[in-house]
Structure to design on (1190 residues):
């Protein structure tokens, strides 16, 4: 919303010109004839701003509004942004714009360029909170007639904050000519809110009726006071039912939001666990350095950003394959250097890879720094998707969910459709037999481990978009990841997906009544109990082979 | 000797781990109908593959029964069911008249009087031969009793005599892991003897043995029959002939034929299964 | 093998060396601290005494881990939980002893509770003003947790790495829980600013010596107890379970009972180690629960040589001495060294230093 108000000056001017043009068309020569005296008056008012106190400034703003001079909006916007200044030498008022050599001046009356000045030669015309509020309202009044429906909508929203006779009449006028359905609805809501203060109970009742289906805070608060102070019982009842309605929807959207938070947390868990599901689930290798492989992925994203400081989006997109390669290669190194000597000795593997995780952490501390680093988020991932007044989804979380599903699908594809996948499954089911059939099992082991490690790296890139990147990044995920894999059922990628997602959702469902830390503890305790009830997880592998474990 | 005795009573009164034994105490074995093992309509399926398919089998008290059958006939799975390692999907398994095997877990079944020798010799490789036998010795196997247990002269004598029976007297203090394959098999049989079970399940006792070793093993098993009931799973037909009175042929998870070895060998169905179509 | 415990201890070389060194240290160190003047080269500073006491606590903890790992094959990544619980029980007693000498001077409430505006002592803090009760809790708290956890875990036959991972999860959950102020254990800061123990000033040299001796005594006692268990028939059953769990079941041993019993005993030992540790270092906070610490204990045992008990002690001393030295001289290098230790010991030294010595003696 604020982004809309602080529009770049170029666009403001363009809008303004459009507005002028429309006005000209509408009122023809009459307007043209009236322009000259308007200019003079406008100029006088503007000149007074240089010396006026805050009270006077408000009065001037009122006067400017009344005059409706074509440049007023530009002036007010500049005033609001603190870009209005008077020249110390002659007290003339200018709109200022930052320029290379000091400040560019713009004449507030005819919008013409008026040279440049040093910023020290100017005195800024100050505003206070009250004045800024007034200015916002005033600008909204102008924007109400803007050609862009989005701008009009924002203007209506702005005006709803404080309704008075002027704004109400402006809204009513606009409703008569408005053709965008959304803006019409906003206008109706605004007018209905105003009508709630009407002395006539019927009008108030009708207004409550109009407000039905609205979920915004302004409406809710107004209904709340109405329900308390309203003398007429019918109106009170209507307000009450309106409130209930809003509460219901809010609860619903709250639920959807929780679900979404849960899924996004679940996606992080799935991303963290899915590489582990390959190394631990398919190969039976405990890799305690899995978290550190994620950390390496996250640092790859960080380095990528250092290499391409100007191209945030490109850096993140390139970081995904790069992290896969870097972490994957480290993974192959780990398998060839350590893990292969310890096959069949899972506890020793656990210890050795844990030692490795310490080394990797310390290496990162030495190379980068023990401090956390932040990786910038590309523009398309920042901000949020406002679905309605009480419900919005943040883009980065939404993309994480999509990304997790994408990684999962790709991995399924690799394991089920490629020759590597075939070999991996063969070796994991019966190493001797696979070897007899000519599968080079050592090579397949290295590739599988590399694949799992690479996926961990990719997960690290995703994490870099959610949290800061630091040497301890991986450590905090290792327990969770193991829990997800074991919960879902070892050797079962679908189990990991469903396990991760459901753990995420359960965690977020618990959070409201138990707090975040308690929720995590409860989930851990639940998992500990669950594994003891069903040691093979949600989706166990059955059969003779599994019996042997 | 006063302190350990006092501790024992203390442990006795506490029964800290008593309630870990699920359900009621195991009833005494009752073989009044002269049948020691009832397996009825047992089915076990792994991922759709039926390892046992409505298997019904009875073993008489004191009998020595041989079970033969091709690979995958379900012999080992049957043993797993009897000893509580695998739970069947359906069917019933009774030990004598009173003991429902499906309600018990492995240690309870062992305590009830069923001993098992595995196909692959499994002895405790890090323990000495003597210790292996000591561990297998029948008696109260609860923690507190075992913690303060001392070998009585009678028990030592018993172990020594079993050592003699299985011919490992000279290896008394050797690490079990250092024994030869045949010696391990005997040690395992010796452990069964120490356990003194009513029913012994013996899985392929002569696999990988020399003829002399095989002969010795046959003697051992024959010596056991009568006092104990013995079920032997074996591939080696010569060995089966040397010990068996009654033979059961398993095929695809159920009983194909039963009778003396000669009867079974002349059974048309058995011939078909063994010699192919 | 079937000889009485005393004879075992006297004939086994490792035990001889360990108990001998422990007794000599326990006599010499106090003497050199109290009787030798501070400027003498032979003087052992109180700082060193406390440091040694700390090491001995670690050694006891290592014994506890070795008992379950080396003898029963249960790789615990959760022994810091028991250690910390014992430590907290002791810490709570020490907090109650502060009385009105705290910053806020409340006769009953510890400082952090006053700070949090609590008006009453939480129920679980009652009784900790009595030494005997606190000592009972040092044993009961870790023991009960281990018993309940083990009862579930062993009964459902969770073994191997699965068990390791859930012990780690347990520790992690406790770590998170103890970080919360609402838990009433001082949150992030833990319990500290202790004044005295049984009326003895914790800063006094004599108290330090006393704590050192108590630790040495506990370590010796713990060692003998573990040795006794290992030498008993139960010890042979436990090793049998380690080597062939299924077989042990089929000859009639209730494997889960044995594991549970051993596990609980080991947790109690760890708790006692924690209780002795806290007054010597002067603080207990949730950091003690950290899973990384739990894995570090395992590496002490691995470095020394598992399944021997004295190896665990040796490993704890060697690694911790190295840690003290490295973090003083080259703090950057310590984690590299520790990490490398994990890798190298598992790859090249599966029997640890003790195994190496045994091999050297055999070839010599």
């Amino acid at each position: 919303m604020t982004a809309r108000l602080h529009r770049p000056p170029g666009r403001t001017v363009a809008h303004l010109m459009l507005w002028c043009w429309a006005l000209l068309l509408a009122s023809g020569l009459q307007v043209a004839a009236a322009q000259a005296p308007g200019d003079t008056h406008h100029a006088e008012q503007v000149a007074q701003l240089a010396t006026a106190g805050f009270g006077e400034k408000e009065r001037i703003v009122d006067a400017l509004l009344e005059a409706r001079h074509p440049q007023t909006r530009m002036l007010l916007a500049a005033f609001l942004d603190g870009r209005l200044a008077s020249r110390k030498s002659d007290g003339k008022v200018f709109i200022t714009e930052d320029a290379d050599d000091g400040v560019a001046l713009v004449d507030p009356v005819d919008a013409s360029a008026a040279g440049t000045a040093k910023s020290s030669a100017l005195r800024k015309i100050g505003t206070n909170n009250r004045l800024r509020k007034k200015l916002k309202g005033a600008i909204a009044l102008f924007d109400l007639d803007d050609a862009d429906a989005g701008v009009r909508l924002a203007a209506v929203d702005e005006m709803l904050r404080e309704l008075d006779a002027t704004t109400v009449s402006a809204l009513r006028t606009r409703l008569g000519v408005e053709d965008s359905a959304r803006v019409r609805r906003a206008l109706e809501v605004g007018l209905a809110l105003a009508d709630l203060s009407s002395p006539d109970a019927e009008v108030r009742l009708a207004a409550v009726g109009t407000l039905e289906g609205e979920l915004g805070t302004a409406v809710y608060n107004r209904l709340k006071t109405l329900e308390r102070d309203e003398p007429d019982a019918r109106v009170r009842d209507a307000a009450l039912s309106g409130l209930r309605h809003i509460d219901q929807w809010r609860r619903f959207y709250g639920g959807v939001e929780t679900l979404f938070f849960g899924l996004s947390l679940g996606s992080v868990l799935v991303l963290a666990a899915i590489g582990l599901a390959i190394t631990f689930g398919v190969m039976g290798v405990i890799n305690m350095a899995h978290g550190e492989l994620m950390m390496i992925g996250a640092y790859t994203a960080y380095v990528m950003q250092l290499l391409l400081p100007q191209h945030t989006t490109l850096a993140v997109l390139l970081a995904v394959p790069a992290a896969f390669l870097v972490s994957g290669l480290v993974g192959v190194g780990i398998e060839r250097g350590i893990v292969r000597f310890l096959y069949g000795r899972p506890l020793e593997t656990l210890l050795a890879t844990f030692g490795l995780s310490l080394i990797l952490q310390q290496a990162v501390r030495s190379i980068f720094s023990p401090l956390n680093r932040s990786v910038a988020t590309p523009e398309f991932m920042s901000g949020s998707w406002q679905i309605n007044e009480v419900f919005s989804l943040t883009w980065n979380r939404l993309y994480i969910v999509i990304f997790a599903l994408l990684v999962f699908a790709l991995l399924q594809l690799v394991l089920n459709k490629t020759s590597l996948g075939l070999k991996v499954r063969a070796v994991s089911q019966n190493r001797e037999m696979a070897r007899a059939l000519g599968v080079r099992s050592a090579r397949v082991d290295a590739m599988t481990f590399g694949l799992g490690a690479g996926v961990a790296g990719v997960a690290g890139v995703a994490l870099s978009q959610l949290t800061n990147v630091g040497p301890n990044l991986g450590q905090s995920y290792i327990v969770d990841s193991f829990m997800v894999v074991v919960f879902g059922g070892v050797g079962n990628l679908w189990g990991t997906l469903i396990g991760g997602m459901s753990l995420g959702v359960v965690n977020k469902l618990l959070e409201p009544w138990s707090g975040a830390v308690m929720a995590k503890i409860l989930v851990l305790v639940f998992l500990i109990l669950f594994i003891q009830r069903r040691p093979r997880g949600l989706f166990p592998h059955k059969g003779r082979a599994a019996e042997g474990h | 000797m006063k302190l350990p005795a006092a501790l024992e009573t203390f442990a006795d009164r506490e029964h800290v781990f008593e309630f870990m034994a699920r359900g009621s105490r195991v009833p005494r074995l009752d073989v009044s109908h002269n049948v020691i093992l009832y397996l009825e309509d047992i089915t076990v399926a792994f991922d759709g593959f039926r390892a046992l398919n409505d298997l019904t089998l009875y073993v008489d008290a004191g009998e020595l029964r041989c079970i033969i059958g091709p690979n995958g006939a379900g012999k080992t799975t049957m043993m797993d069911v009897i000893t509580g390692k695998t739970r069947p999907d359906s069917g019933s398994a009774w030990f004598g008249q009173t003991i429902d095997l499906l309600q018990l877990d492995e240690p309870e079944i062992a305590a009830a009087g069923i001993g098992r020798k595995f196909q692959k010799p499994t002895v405790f490789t890090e323990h000495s031969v003597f210790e292996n036998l000591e561990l297998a010795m029948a008696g109260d196997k609860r923690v507190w009793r075992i913690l303060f247990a001392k070998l009585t002269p009678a028990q030592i004598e018993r172990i020594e005599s079993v050592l003699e029976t299985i011919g490992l007297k000279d290896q008394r203090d050797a690490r079990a892991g250092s024994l030869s394959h045949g010696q391990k098999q005997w040690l395992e049989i010796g452990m069964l003897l120490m356990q003194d079970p009513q029913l012994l399940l013996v899985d392929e006792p002569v696999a990988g043995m020399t003829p002399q070793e095989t002969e010795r093993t046959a003697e051992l098993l024959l010596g056991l029959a009568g006092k104990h009931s013995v079920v032997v799973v074996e591939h080696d037909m010569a060995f089966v002939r040397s010990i068996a009175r009654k033979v059961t042929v398993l095929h695809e998870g159920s009983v194909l034929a039963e009778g003396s070895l000669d009867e079974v060998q002349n059974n048309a169905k058995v011939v078909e299964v063994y010699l192919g179509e | 093998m079937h000889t009485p415990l005393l004879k075992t201890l006297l004939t086994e070389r490792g035990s001889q060396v360990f108990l001998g060194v422990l007794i000599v240290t326990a006599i010499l160190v106090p003497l050199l601290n109290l009787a030798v003047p501070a400027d003498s080269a032979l003087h052992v500073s109180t700082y060193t005494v406390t440091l040694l006491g700390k090491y001995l606590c670690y050694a006891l903890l290592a014994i506890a881990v070795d008992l379950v790992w080396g003898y029963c094959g249960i790789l615990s990544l959760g022994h810091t939980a028991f250690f910390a619980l014992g430590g907290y029980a002791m810490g709570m007693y020490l907090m109650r002893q502060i009385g009105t000498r705290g910053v806020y001077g409340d006769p009953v409430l510890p400082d952090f509770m006053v700070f949090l505006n609590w008006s009453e002592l939480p129920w679980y803090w009652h009784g900790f003003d009595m030494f005997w009760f606190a000592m009972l809790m040092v044993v009961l708290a870790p023991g009960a947790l281990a018993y309940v956890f083990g009862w579930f875990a062993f009964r459902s036959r969770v073994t191997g790495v699965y068990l390791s991972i859930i012990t780690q999860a347990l520790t992690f959950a406790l770590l998170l829980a103890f970080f919360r102020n609402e838990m009433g254990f001082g949150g992030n800061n833990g319990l500290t600013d202790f004044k005295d123990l049984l009326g003895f000033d914790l800063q006094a040299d004599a108290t330090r010596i006393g704590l050192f001796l108590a630790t040495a005594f506990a370590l010796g006692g713990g060692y003998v107890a573990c040795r006794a268990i290992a030498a008993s028939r139960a010890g042979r059953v436990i090793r049998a379970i380690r080597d062939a769990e299924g077989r042990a079941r089929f000859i009639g041993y209730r494997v889960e009972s044995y594991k549970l019993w051993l596990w609980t005993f080991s947790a109690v030992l760890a708790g006692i180690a924690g209780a002795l540790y806290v007054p010597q270092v002067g603080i207990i906070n949730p950091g003690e629960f950290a899973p990384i610490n739990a894995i570090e204990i395992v590496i002490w045992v691995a470095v020394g040589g598992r399944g021997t008990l004295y190896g665990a002690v040796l490993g704890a001393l060697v690694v911790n001495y190295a840690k003290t030295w490295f973090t003083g001289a080259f703090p950057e290098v310590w984690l590299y060294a520790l990490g490398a230790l994990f890798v190298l010991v598992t790859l090249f030294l599966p029997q640890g230093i003790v195994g190496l010595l045994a091999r050297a003696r055999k070839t010599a």
